[in-house]
Amino acid sequence: MTDHDLPVIAHWFDGAAAPSASGRTAPVHNPATGAVRAHVALADQADITAALASAGRGFAAWSAFSIAKRQSVLFAFRELLNARKGELARIITAEHGKVVSDAMGEIARGQEVVELACGFPHLIKGAFSENASNGVDVYSLKQPLGIVGIISPFNFPAMVPMWFFPIALAAGNAVIVKPSEKDPSASLWLAQLWKEAGLPDGAFTVLQGDKVAVDGLLHADEVQSISFVGSTPIAQYIYETASKNGKRVQALGGAKNHMLVLPDADLDLVADQAVNAGFGAAGERCMAVSVVLAVEPVADELIAKVTERIAKLRIGDGAADAEPDMGPLISAAHRDKVSSYVDIAEADGARIVVDGRGYTVDGYEDGFFFGPTLLDEVPTSSRAYTEEIFGPVLSVVRVRTYDEGLALINSGDFGNGTAIFTNDGGAARRFQNEVQVGMIGINVPIPVPVAYHSFGGWKKSLFGDAKAYGVHGFDFFTREKAVTSRWLDPAAHGGINLGFPQN
Ligand code: NAD
């Protein structure tokens, strides 16, 4: 098959796949084989205009649905997703590379938000104060914003959009999803599922593309809010540009998550969790553990245990029948970038305990594989320590005390997730209080909050003040009106009074 015969992954406008007007495309790879499997449309202004029109029609139809009817569509979507999630998992693996069971895990975490959203009437019902003043009632209404934009990263092509769109739709908004151009197909599968669930056409619109599509959404007056997840420099750009254009914005950025291991911790548990959280999804998770802070004297023993476990990891095609533990990275360019961070660490004096550079898998020589890598004594001045690597590279930094470890975590740019491993409840409690990070695990390595709490980091891991999902999600996707009402009753009518209303 030549490149020209490959399918073009389209937009989704008015409830159907819509070819692009732009003629611009980008290749979409299967990262395990390195082969181009399709091309994705990259929007230009005509596509952006069409997406806005589609979402406008969708909003008019969907916002007129009663709460009960909206709820039945959400329940139908949940049932369809639950029954057919295996199809979605295979699509994710084919374009992202993560193993199928991990793709199923990503869907399960997204489905949690769908299930939360099914109970939305309780969360958008507002409040009522009877007789706030004589004969005056005050109440609040929570109304949808209108058209909302969701811009997602490559690493969770289903879960991250699902952090936002179930709640946005439950609240009566129309969504435009701009997926990552690296793995765009999951969004179209989800769009088709919404159609089958009974969502009016246009209420779930997909705009494929790159910076041009993103900028189109950031500058469109019709778009009321932006929910972004991706790297920190882009998150900051999105936050600044969308805010300047008067939009509500939540922009989640990158991470550098530390695991603090106290000397009393169970080192077998720690080694298991460090390997799971460091190398799962090939380290391409914003909540991956990338630094183990070992409070001495545990480092040598812990490194031995982690090394033993790394030796047993199976790396390969995530879609293979005999499922490996870890798949490839997303692209050749990203693999080379990850590799360059190991070079930097080495040049800066780190000790390479396990080297994943140049890793190949038999029969998949063109795949974007990178082996699990363990670094010891990584200098905290090295860019390999300060910057996000986003690959299967676990760095050990040795510290002498809890305070030294805590100070390192708090001195970093990011504040997404962290974990402490200890059997000392007092130390754990102190840590949760003192650490400057948004999501904390106590003997839990990847503390992604459940759907009814909210997801979001501190510092350069989240721009804006609204986290994803939970109550924050419902606040973000609704706009409140406060109504002060008096039904005229001649006895309560105060006559003319130019003073400021008081109780
Ligand atoms: P990315 O920032 O490169 O891309 C994210 C989105 O922004 C994509 O849809 C992309 O098309 C768009 N984009 C890219 N460059 C742009 C530009 N110059 N202008 C406008 N839009 C642009 O991120 P990625 O590589 O897809 O994802 C990995 C990053 O996402 C990592 O940094 C990871 O930590 C982060 N992430 C964070 C969280 C979180 O919850 N904080 C969750 C998942 C991923």
UniProtKB/TrEMBL annotation:
Transmembrane segments: none
Name assigned to this protein: methylmalonate-semialdehyde dehydrogenase (CoA acylating)
Keywords per UniProt: NAD, Oxidoreductase
Molecular-function GO terms, alphabetical: methylmalonate-semialdehyde dehydrogenase (acylating, NAD) activity
EC number: 1.2.1.27
Enzyme class: oxidoreductase
The keyword Isomerase is annotated on this UniProt entry: no
Every Aldehyde dehydrogenase domain range: 21-483
Keyword Manganese: no
Biological process annotations from GO: L-valine catabolic process; thymine catabolic process
CDD domains in the record: ALDH_F6_MMSDH (cd07085)
